[in-house]
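Shipment paperwork, digital attachment
Item: protein structure file
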Amino acid sequence: MEATMAAGPATTATNTVTSSDGILIGDKVYSEVFLTIDNSLIPEEKLSPTPSMLDGLDLHTETDLRILGCELIQSAGILLRLPQVAMATGQVLFHRFFYSKSFVKHSFEIVAMACINLASKIEEAPRRIRDVINVFHHLRQIRGKRSSSPLILDQNYINTKNQVIKAERRVLKELGFCVHVKHPHKIIVMYLQVLDCEKNQTLVQTAWVVHDGKCHKEPLNSAPPTT
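Attachment content:
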């Protein structure tokens, strides 16, 4: 998603500026953020080559990193008991960020932690950053097929926490603070019903169904899971 936000020294001493100049904050004039159908999608010139490809990373490896990052966000969200919409938002933020920055220069795992932490706030289901780091620590042990051990709150933990906080700010900056995500899955379910395809379990399982304000990956005719 593209957002235009430029800053420059103010050209007037008063607090009143014209709409074409932008908004005066302190001694600087900031332009407005424009969100239209034209800039809500990533432009084709950013899709290829990506920043990672420009840094020498091949497309296959970048695709694998994107898949792994999204799988980590999904698994972490389940362990954090987040609503499905929060995981999906985190995955969208993850993809958007790496169309602006390179996997070569940024740790995908730190960015994934930052994205799910940010998404939990956006979707009004905030989690403690300590819990996010602890869950990713657990998932790392599973991937490495190591025995589970608790997260030690040492200097490494403090360093990781600071990196996640900085990465979250970096994601916000790169996306121009335009982090609202309109997911299509509810519309997909509606279309399935209109087309009388709701009995096709394969199709239905790919969409989201809302039960009592929560999103679950369940078929239309199933009862919401107990929590």
